Fold this sequence. Notes:
The protein has 142 residues and is an alpha+beta fold. It has helices at 27-37, 60-63, 124-139; strands at 5-12, 15-22, 25-26, 47-48, 72-78, 88-95, 98-105, 120-123. The protein is 22% helix and 33% strand. The chain has a five-stranded antiparallel sheet with strand order 4-5-6-7-8. A three-stranded antiparallel sheet has the order 1-2-3. The N and C termini lie far apart (36 Å).
Amino acid sequence: MPNQIRFEVLTFETTPEVVPHVDSRPLTELIDAYEVGAKMDVAGDAYAGLVPAHFDFGPMEEHYLGAGMGPRVPLLGCTCGEWGCWPLMATVTAVGDTVTWDEFEQPHRTDRDYTGFGPFTFSRTDYDEALAVLMIDLADWA
């Protein structure tokens, strides 16, 4: 059974912040729990959503399909609002009727092992619908 996806738009200072939710749980909580459980240094509450105003990700619906930056994209950034400060990267693969997030990494800690985290596989129809809602939510900020 595929995972469920939703993109929540929160407020970072005075601009939108995008937090993916997998199976009704924020990705920030999922990765924090994984890192704390794996006893990783600098684990827990280190991640936040992406702040599109702080970096030109291009159209967010393309970013979350692995376009623009390549298949490995940041899904989360740092609590300071800059994605490059402390990103959670993943490979996003959209093939046929599925979208998969896997090969997670924290590029500032290359010795970390994320093989037990994910993969998350979504129905392409549900994923596209979640992206359409995200784009409407982001347009409300304009």
